[in-house]
Design a protein that fits this description.
This protein has 438 residues and is α/β, with parallel strands linked by helices. Helices cover 24% and strands 26% of the residues. It folds into 2 domains: 191 residues, FAD/NAD(P)-binding domain (3-Layer(bba) Sandwich); 158 residues, FAD/NAD(P)-binding domain, CATH 3.50.50. The radius of gyration is 22 Å and the shape is globular. The N terminus is likely disordered.
Length: 438
């Protein structure tokens, strides 16, 4: 049973460097460190929670985060579309570790929630009283045969990596006709709309350049429809029709041959043809391409999948938390949010903005020996860029319930929403959200 009453008296840290008010702790191998609250992962969710905890005056917070760079990933769609510089999406992590929070620059290798210990790749043992898991999502490129060998070459790209998003734009500019293929996997992914946002930008780009009539755009998706929320689907169906995009649902990308420029899809179990006879081998189809934008299958980071925190009923290994309180279902001193969590909503930064205050409030309650009271309703939003200068903001709750929050009609493509995406949201992210103010 986890110990909820322990208080940290001092941190067992061998060396503390002070940089701009931030404590960066470096440790010798096998060192033992103790944090009152340990946040695993200093990405969108981890930094937001750390900042909000500090604003509430909480002491003894440590962030375990290996990366020296922090990325604003939502802008990678615009990088791929050639309207946002990649360099503007990255800033030093150290500038966003709140003053008074320890930055443990290392990566978690193992979590032992029964003993309240996280072991790191650098050989540290970090004991904690309370744990917040915010380690993001793992991109499983290796699950698509031949993909890793050809990424960034042969017209194969993905906005899901900082180094590859600029390649999307390079390859797009080289496209003068043929087949432009866009894929979406069957697993949950971060930003469910991202596989198609870049497709609409590409379609608009080709139209403006006069190459649209010579290009067949295909959306090969393991999903069953263009979007699960009926109000969003209605708008996107019109966008797809406007660009003449061919949709192939129930299609999971399983192999890419970069040299031959061929992509192979397997029918998913819910494909009408497979559903008739689930025992029969799943049919495969191979499509030629001139341009291929891939969104890889995704899952929880391996160290979480292998831990007792993972949902045992789901091989993708999400941290199993209550969908309203964000508290772990078996370990009351553990919370999780963001992409790594089991929260059954679309995984976005916008969702984290609503999850973080709920988590912080409930964590503080549990630290005082109370029951968590705050409830997260599944709010998430997806800024669906549908053309250069057009964006359609999809906001929804659990169970795909449409939930617009702005005092304007957002159920259509709008120029002011495009400005929000390109200028407003990045500013809000860097200056408010990561600072614990939004
Ligand atoms: C192309 C693209 C477009 C997107 N568009 C939008 C959008 O328009 N709107 C929107 O709201 N969201 C969008 N998103 C999604 C959004 O970026 C993510 O949902 C959000 O960043 C998730 O936050 P997180 O903290 O859970 O994960 P991350 O921000 O990815 O952070 C996870 C952190 O954990 C760290 N980590 C990993 N392994 C370990 C380990 N073993 N130990 C310790 N730390 C570890 C990583 O280094 C990282 O810093 C988009 C994402 C992409 C890729």
């Amino acid at each position: 049973m986890p110990n909820l009453g322990v208080r940290v008296t001092e941190q067992e840290v061998s060396m503390v460097l002070r940089e701009k008010g931030t404590q960066e702790t470096k440790a010798t191998p096998k060192e033992r460190v103790h944090q009152r609250i340990l946040i695993v992962g200093g990405g969108t969710a981890g930094l937001t929670v750390a900042a909000q905890l500090r604003r509430r005056g909480v002491e003894g917070v440590g962030v375990l985060e290996p990366s020296e760079q922090h990325y604003y990933q939502p802008a990678w769609t615009l990088v791929g579309g050639g309207v946002y510089p990649a360099e503007a999406t990255v800033r030093p992590t150290k500038n966003y570790i709140p003053a008074g929070v320890s930055w443990l620059r290392d990566a978690a290798a193992e979590v032992d929630p029964d003993r309240q210990i996280v072991r790191t790749q650098g050989g540290r043992e970090i004991r904690y009283d309370f744990l917040v898991v915010a380690a993001g999502i793992q991109l499983d490129w290796h699950k698509v045969e031949g993909l890793e060998a050809t990424l960034g070459r042969n017209g194969v790209t993905s906005n899901y990596r900082y180094d590859l998003a600029p390649k999307t734009w390079t390859f797009l500019q080289g496209l003068k006709g043929g087949v432009a293929l866009f894929t979406a996997p069957g697993t949950p992914i971060k930003c469910g709309g991202a596989p198609q946002k870049i497709m609409y930008l590409a379609a608009d780009y080709l139209r403006r350049k006069g190459f649209a009539k010579d290009t067949q755009i295909i959306f090969g998706s393991a999903g069953t429809t263009i979007f699960g929320v009926p109000e969003v689907k209605a708008v996107l169906d019109r966008v797809v029709a406007r660009y003449g995009i061919r949709t192939e649902f129930h299609h999971e990308l399983v192999a890419v041959d970069g040299e031959k420029k061929e992509a192979t899809f397997e029918f998913t179990p819910n494909h009408p043809q497979v559903a008739v006879n689930p025992q029969a081998p799943r049919p495969r189809v191979t499509l030629p391409f001139d341009f291929l934008h891939v969104v890889p299958p995704q899952s929880a980071p391996d160290f979480l999948k292998q831990s007792p925190l993972a949902d045992p009923s789901n091989p993708l290994g999400w941290v199993q938390v209550d969908k309203h309180t964000l508290q772990h279902v078996r370990y009351p001193n553990v919370f999780s949010l963001g992409d790594a969590s089991s929260l059954p909503t679309s995984k976005t930064g916008a969702a984290i903005r609503k999850q973080a205050p709920v988590l912080v409030e409930n964590l503080l309650a549990v630290m005082k020996g109370k029951e968590p009271q705050k409830r997260y309703d599944g709010y998430t939003s997806c800024p669906l860029v549908t053309a250069y200068g057009k964006m359609f903001l999809a906001e929804f709750l659990y169970d795909n319930r449409w939930h617009p929050t702005l005092p304007i009609n957002t159920q259509k493509e709008r120029y002011d929403m495009w400005l929000l995406k390109k200028y407003g949201l990045p500013l809000m992210y860097w200056h408010l959200m990561l600072r614990g103010r939004a």
